[in-house]
Fold this sequence. Notes:
single chain, 7-stranded mixed β-sheet
Amino acid sequence: MSSIHHELLSTNQLAVLKKLRVFKKKAVLAGGTALSLQLAHRYSFDFDLFQDKIVSPHDLHLLNKILKIREIVFKSSDMLVVKLESDISFSLVYYWFKPLYPKIDAGYLHLFDYRDIALDKAETIGRRATWRDYFDLFYILQNTRFSIKDILAGAKIKFRNEFSQEQFLTQLTYFDDLGEFDLKFVKKKYRPDEIKKFLTNEVEKFTTKLILKQKQ
């Protein structure tokens, strides 16, 4: 992951990113946009910043100074979600888990490494998920060397007993409750059935190996 794909950002997104540089020392860009900047696999339109301190009134005051906020969607000591005048959504999240991989300096902000983002998405899929999360994990598993085995090992270290391997593997092949499948891909387009089949096969291969190992 040698280059950062700022070219995938719209003019409005890039303008917001530049203003968010005031958070560089205290917060890290996470989620789909941080992943897109590294993998260039799909377009992502929102910004999620994670920090290891609670969200304070000072944070909102600072955001009001640098961004044009249209609406405060949600506010608590754990999370602040706002909608900007440019129609971009922005979240500031209190995140207490330590990253397992070095953060990436992307100029205006630091990014979580794509492997840490994969772990976060694995934890999310075990509880609640969107089609974006499934696609992101599909893309990582198919196009990088980060495997289901790596995800499970990392998630156990990062989240400890807050992560359930069984629940994750079950949810990774359960697609009934998912809604919107429409994603904007950068290059190659992927069909939902193609993604579902790949994830199901990956889980089956992993569980088969696990069963065989336990029988030895």
